[in-house]
Specification:
The protein is of the alpha+beta class. It is built from five helices and three strands, in the order H-H-E-H-H-E-E-H. Strands 1-3-2 form a three-stranded antiparallel β-sheet. The model has no long low-confidence stretch (mean pLDDT 94).
């Protein structure tokens, strides 16, 4: 049991961060508004959790303009994907 718990990552214990990483692992990228709609959260709440994951180097951000409107895309990093999969595997082991 002790070995299983060591693979849980506190960065993903919040349900919004868990949702962000789940969405980014199964998609190449998602933009801010798509994540906001998917997770049904406010701008500030989403931005706060995205910044937390970005600071942990689990996601990266790319800003660009589409038809003169800013568009921010979020991608899971290799480190983020690996750490997230390890976290999910630990949860699965706990449930067995």
């Amino acid at each position: 049991m002790k070995d299983i718990l060591k693979d849980l990552n506190k960065a993903f214990e919040n349900k919004i961060r868990l949702g962000i990483m789940s969405a980014l692992v199964v998609n190449d990228y998602m933009d801010f508004n798509s994540l906001k709609e998917l997770l049904d959260v406010t701008d500030g709440n989403l931005a706060s959790h995205l910044k937390n994951l970005e600071n942990a180097d689990f996601i990266k951000v790319r800003k660009e303009f589409l038809d003169r409107k800013p568009n921010t895309k979020y991608y899971a990093t290799k480190s983020g994907i690996d750490t997230f999969k390890k976290h999910i595997n630990a949860i699965e082991q706990l449930l067995k």
